[in-house]
Amino acid sequence: MGRLFDTWPEKYDAWFATPIGFLVKKYESELIMDLLRPKQGEMILDAGCGTGIFTFNILRLGPCVVGLDISLPMLRRAEHKAVGYHFRGVIGDMMNLPFPDGSFEKVVSITALEFIKDAKGALDEMFRVTKQCGCIVVATLNSLSPWAQHRRVKAQKGKTIFDRAIFRSPEEIAAIAPIAGEIRTAIHFSEDDNPELVPGIESEGHHMGLKTGAFIAACWEKPRKAQ
Amino acid sequence: MTEIDKELLDILACPIGKADLKLEGDFLVCTRCGARYPIKDGIPVLLIDEAVLPEGVSSVEELECWKEREKGN
After folding, report:
1. Between A90, A96, A99, which is nearest B43 by CB?
2. pLDDT of residue B1
3. Could you list the residue range(s) of the whole structural domain that residue A21 is in?
């Protein structure tokens, strides 16, 4: 599994630097930050942090972030971006998180769940390491979006990392969680849309509360244990 | 000897049974089951597949942490 990602870091970062990739990152980040609301001094786990594309936005607000990933080359890249911030990298597997129960105020995982068959097992681990009243924010790619179909076609041609990805719907994500949470989607435009028209399309999708955006973000608050 | 951030060491646990780890040379060693996890370039590698098993133990299933975890399931 680690090896699958080891050859990928440059390509992955490069895509987000294209005009449409930049907009995707912008709207995905806004949604994540709106749900996660990182604060100074919090301990946050970024599970499956990869090259740290989204980690940096979190770090800027002052929390301590532990970045966990299965790939050493990806994690090295994340550490490089995080120089000067409170970031610690750990190689680990999301199914077996190397932390005691209740270690973090918040846990975030962004486009990592699609590479895990047992999504419920991974989510259970994230809940376990979160403190009571802390929150868990999970973002993953939406099977209901046209982007999913497009990525499947590309994957069949063997060109991308997505041949191993499992796309899920907002309902499937809700169903694997132990409690009810808030689920939103973003990225209502397509890869071929004119970047100038994107803000309008995105804003319309947001206001209509569409469930078909390419990017699903879910947020749960871990309940206080009954005494 | 490998340096590792104390703040990080304090929250790390054995990925199998979540017991505390202690630093021994270039490894983080589980204080319950004795599994040894390498530190590569200052980054702890806490993967069950990469654990070095203690002497006399031939599989992960024989580890105390594994038994503890099975009890919990």
Report:
1. A90
2. 47
3. 2-220
Q: What is the dihedral of CA A219, A179, A141, A118, to 10 degrees?
A: 130
The matching CATH number, chosen from 2.60.120.510, 2.20.25.10, 3.40.50.2000, 3.40.50.150, for B6-72 is 2.20.25.10
> Which residues of A, range 21-60, sit inside 8 Å of B by Cβ?
43
Q: Classify residue A168: in a domain, yes or no.
A: yes
pLDDT tens, residue by residue, A98-115? 999 999 999 999 999 999
Q: Which residues of chain B have pLDDT under 70?
A: 1-3, 73
Question: Mutating which of A69, A99, A128 best tests the B interface, going by the most B Cβ atoms within 10 A?
Answer: A99
A 10 A CB-CB count for B24 gives 11
Please count the residue pairs, one from chain A and one from chain B, whose beta carbons lie less than 8 angstroms apart.
Answer: 55
B30 touches chain A (CB under 8 A): no
Contacts of A98 in chain B (CB under 8 A): 12-15, 18, 44, 46
pLDDT digits (tens, 9 = 90+) for B2-15: 567 888 999 999 99
Q: Which residues in chain A touch residue B18, judged by CB atoms under 8 angstroms apart? A: 98-101
Name the residue facing B44 among A70, A79, A91 (closest C-beta). Answer: A91
Q: What is the pTM of this model?
A: 0.91
Domain CATH for A131: 3.40.50.150
CB contact under 8 Å between B15 and A66, yes or no, is no
Question: What is the ipTM, given to two decimal places?
Answer: 0.94
